[in-house]
Amino acid sequence: MHSLINRRVQLVAVAITCLGIGAGASAVTTASANNTAARPGTHGRPLRALLRRTVAGSFVVATKSGFVDLTVARGRVQAVDPQARTLTLVEGTRSQAYRTVTLTLPTDVKVRVDRTPASLDQVAVGQRATVVTGPKRTLVLAHTPTGP
User: Fold this and answer.
1) How many CB atoms lie within 10 A of CB 113?
2) CA dihedral sign of residues 62, 63, 67, 71
3) pLDDT of residue 3
4) SS3 for 60-99, per residue?
5) Which of 43, 49, 59, 147 is the most exposed place for a label (fewest CB within 10 A)?
């Protein structure tokens, strides 16, 4: 059980690291192209602001045994079908939709709702969710948004 939790933590850490690396590369490229100071309101933390606004991404990560493809999708849950193992997300911000995607999840998907282990049928419409898909496992992290 302890090793399963470590693997989940490692998968999430790899996904977040990939987001950070991609965001950092983008920030460095943008900064060198524009050669300007950080935007007002980011308080010198453009990387954190970029990570907070990331909607979707596909990353290739180098591991000891070769390269691994990771896919990240974030958005508001529009529909859940536990029988068909599908999750429909509206990717984007609170005020603007980027696209709607329907993800078919494997039978061994790991789900956490509000930081506690759960099943796919406990994911509710309107929750915010992040889906991280790797070569060996898929992780769904859902939470109930606070505020309006």
Assistant:
1) 19
2) negative
3) 57
4) EEEECCEEEEEEEEEEEEEEEECCCCEEEEEEECCCCEEE
5) 147
Regions in the chain scoring below 50 on pLDDT = 4, 25, 27-38
- pLDDT on residue 5: 56
Query: What domains sit in the chain, N to C, each tagged with a CATH number?
Result: 2-143 (2.40.50.320)
Q: Residue 100's pLDDT is what?
A: 95
Annotate 14-51 with b (16+ C-beta within 10 A) or e (fewer).
Answer: bbeebbbebbeeebeeeeeeeeeeeeeeeeeebbeebe
Q: At 85, list the tokens.
A: 């193992």
For position 2, what pLDDT does the model report?
52
Instruction: Quickly tell me which residue has 């790797």 as its tokens.
Output: 134
Contact 82, 121 (CB under 8 A): yes
Residue 10's pLDDT is what?
66
In this structure, are strands 86-92 and 97-104 parallel, antiparallel, or unpaired? antiparallel
